[in-house]
Write a structure and sequence with these properties.
The protein is α+β, with helices and mostly antiparallel strands. The protein has one helix and eight strands, in the order H-E-E-E-E-E-E-E-E. An eight-stranded antiparallel β-barrel has the order 1-2-3-4-5-6-7-8. The chain is globular, with a radius of gyration of 21 Å.
Amino acid sequence: MKTTKTKRQQRLLLGFAATIGMQAGAYAASAPDVPDQIKAPAGERLVFRAHASGAQIYVCQLGADGKSQWALKAPEAQLHDRKGAVVGHHYAGPTWKHSDGSEVTGKASAKVDSADPDSIPWLLVSATGHSGAGVFAQVTSIQRIHTKGGQAPAAASCDSSKLGTEAKIPYTADYYFYAPAK
């Protein structure tokens, strides 16, 4: 009688573990549906996803044409996991730093306009550098999608009296991090 109960418990535990494993695998394996221009390259797999909330920082300065204009200085955002816990930061570079100490720096390689005209574009970013060991150590591509806000202030608000002035424009976005498939 005791062995039957033990076997039943083992089957229940195995079933429960398999269900959890399938859910975790489905989350890790589900890349977002995005326009072709910003799809991750073939042979890469999704390794991490984060929701960012923060600001795009712009500075009023003279452009190459000698006219005042807003120019992107840097992003400044916290990265959150699915439960809302802060798991890293996004800042100038652009750089993403995970709480495990790993970081990746990149350069935009493709962009598409956001469906919302008041939001910054969606991007595909190619990694240009890494430091530390951890989740971002092998990242080769990053997508910025589902953007809300972050657009530069109106051009008319940057004139010669405001040169050097910074504007922090709130934004949110989802970042998807990819690494070579194993």
